[in-house]
Amino acid sequence: MKIKTHEDLEVYQIAFKAATEIFELSKKFPVEEKYSLTDQIRRSSRSVCANIAEAWRKRRYQAAFIAKLSDSEAEAAEVHDERVPLRLTPTRGRSSGLA
């Protein structure tokens, strides 16, 4: 299959699916985290996709391409790191949906 846009990239498709799943899971986060943790993890997961798309558009310029991929990786790490405080947040008997 010929790759015509960033949406054809397997890595973009995986990131988009993950962002969609994170959004759905974050609906179950504790109410007290609505404007901090929930917002941050949603923005970071969407940013992974946005940075991959921007890297695709800048692929002719190696330094810019690498920089955007690095930004994407950093956002993915931030999503992962945000899971730690979530585990520490009392859920009053509710499951956050994250392992």
Short structural summary:
The chain is mainly alpha-helical and 99 residues long.
Coarse structural class = mainly alpha
**The CATH topology is what?**
de novo design (two linked rop proteins)
**3D shape:** elongated
CATH top-level class:
Mainly Alpha
The CATH superfamily label reads 23S rRNA-intervening sequence
Write the layout of secondary structure elements.
Blueprint: H1 10-26, H2 34-57, H3 62-88
What does this 3D model show about the protein?
The chain is mainly alpha-helical and 99 residues long. The protein has one domain: Up-down Bundle (de novo design (two linked rop proteins)), CATH 1.20.1440. Helices cover 69% and strands 0% of the residues. The protein has helices at residues 10-26, 34-57, 62-88. Helix 2 runs antiparallel to helix 3 (62-88). The chain is elongated and about 45 Å long.
Keywords:
mainly alpha, elongated, disordered C terminus
